[in-house]
Amino acid sequence: MSNTISCSVHGEAQKAYICCHLLETLQDRIPRVVHYVHDEDEVLNAWCDNCEVTLEHEGEWSPIVDRAAQIKVVCAGCFENVIVLNNISRTIQ
Question: pTM higher than 0.90 for the full model?
Fold first, then answer.
């Protein structure tokens, strides 16, 4: 399975996974608290504070968290835009 995606804005780029609420940040430009990790394949995974509350309540990633997060695939460039819109200082390597 490829870790890249073709983005209409950034072209061919690394995949990243974000919750639907962070995807909204790209559209409405409203900052949301971001929690993110690199998975075992070094792919970025991120979710908002509301999804974090659900995750903490569940104790682990579960179907309930899946329904709340509705994870979407974006490119690393779009992920970086989410980071910038949330005033987080970091660079994706």
Answer: no
